[in-house]
Amino acid sequence: MKASANCHRYRLVTDWVEIAEELTALYLLPIVTAITVLFFLAPTYLKYMGHNLIMQKTVVSAAVIQVILLFLLVPDFAATDAALAYAIFMCGMYLVFTLTAHRELVMLKSSN
After folding, report:
1. Residue 94: how many CB atoms within 10 A of its CB?
2. Which CA distances in Å does 77 have to 17, 37, 47, 88?
3. 59-109 pLDDT tens trace
4. Neighbours of 100 (CB within 10 A)
5. Angle at Cα 48 formed by Cα 44 and Cα 53, nearest 5°?
6. Most CB atoms within 10 A, among 75, 88, 97, 104?
7. What contacts 81, CB < 8 A, 6 or more positions away?
8. Among candidates 60, 55, 63, which has minimal Cα distance to 96?
């Protein structure tokens, strides 16, 4: 009976560890969403200004990086690292968009 109780406790602990790993992924996703919402106008501005080639290169580069990260990270830690790969992908892509749009605005302001 005692061995059965210890086995049950061990299973409860491992279940909680798995749940904690999944929760880490769920905590990452809203943070990434908040960052992308904060900078969502940068790609719209770039499209409006006709910088489609920059947009395409950025999206393709980010997609390739995300696929590589998924292959490297997911087999080890599943959902947590998939969320981390997504976070790196989205934040990196929006960072490039924002920096490019900022550079364009600075150049436009200095030419006037």
Report:
1. 21
2. 12, 27, 37, 16
3. 898 889 888 888 887 776 677 778 888 888 888 899 999 999 999 989 988
4. 19
5. 85
6. 97
7. 73, 74
8. 55
